[in-house]
Amino acid sequence: MAAAAPRAHRPVHRPLRAQPELGKPRRSSYTLPGPDFTYGLCIRGTDGGVPEAIGHWHAMKPRPPSLRERPRNYIAMNRGALKAGYVTAREFNLYRHVKDIRCKEEDGSRFKKAPPSLPPDMTFGITARPSTPIFDLLQHRYQEVWVEQQRAAAAARQAEKKELQKKKVCETRTTLLRKHPPPVKVDSLWHLPQFQKVAPHLSTFPSRDAHKKAFSVYHSEQPTRCGPLGQGIYIKA
Questions:
Q1: What gap in Å lies between CA 140 and CA 62, rounded to an integer?
Q2: pTM above 0.85, yes or no
Q3: Beta-carbon neighbour count of residue 81 at 10 Å?
């Protein structure tokens, strides 16, 4: 019995029922064109190509500048309204409707002035950093310079401190008044002139000595008596 010939691969119209082959990805159900098909968009030249460009010279006509609406010059209109004697907002609005002043058209060039004149041998850019002195690094020259600077700064601070200590403290009026206060003049109490140098009209003591003795006893007994003036009864011990 002869062996059956292998069946040719047929396009699969049902991708869900297609079974993947061993070691191959799942086949697509779309049919692709043959090997002589060129993918992409075909653009056919309609301008004549290079011969047409060499044989004819098509000059581009300059486009006229687009007319832009110039903005209103409110500063000039307000100035004119003030000169005309208008002060209210309604009068200003009517003046703007009557005299519509527009701003002047600016120059179309980007540069308002010519560029600065530079020398022809000028080099643009940032200057390169000078090379590092490797011998100073190996000899620790920067460390020695820093140590010397620190010593000089410390010596300057010490000298300034000594100068401040040598200076004496200046006396001011406040310190002098604290050391030597001026004498205070004790003024007597003020009395009416008609009551000055008036002798007492009544004297219950027989003599001046009896008066002094009575008051000395009174002052000595004040701590042991009641009352703010020390004239009450004796306090119980």
A1: 71
A2: no
A3: 20
Contact 175, 168 (CB under 8 A): no
CB of 204 closer than 8 Å to CB of 213? no
SS (H, E, C) 1-57: CCCCCCCCCCCCCCHHHCCCCCCCCCCCCCCCCCCCCCCCCCCCCCCCHHHHHHHCC
Residues in the chain, overall count: 237
Measure the CA–CA gap between 117 and 140, rounded to whole angstroms: 47
Which tokens is 80 given? 């004119």
3-state SS of 118-157 is CCCCCCCCCCCCCCCCHHHHHCCHHHHHHHHHHHHHHHHH
Q: Render each residue's pLDDT in the chain as its tens digit; 237 residues.
A: 444 444 444 555 566 776 777 888 777 767 788 888 888 887 776 677 777 777 777 677 777 766 677 888 999 999 999 999 998 999 999 999 998 898 887 654 444 566 778 888 888 888 888 888 888 888 888 899 999 999 999 999 998 888 777 667 788 889 888 888 888 887 777 878 877 777 777 888 888 899 899 889 888 888 888 887 777 777 776
How far apart are alpha carbons 103 and 68 in whole angstroms?
12
3-state secondary structure of 61: coil
Domain ranges of the chain: 70-103, 134-165
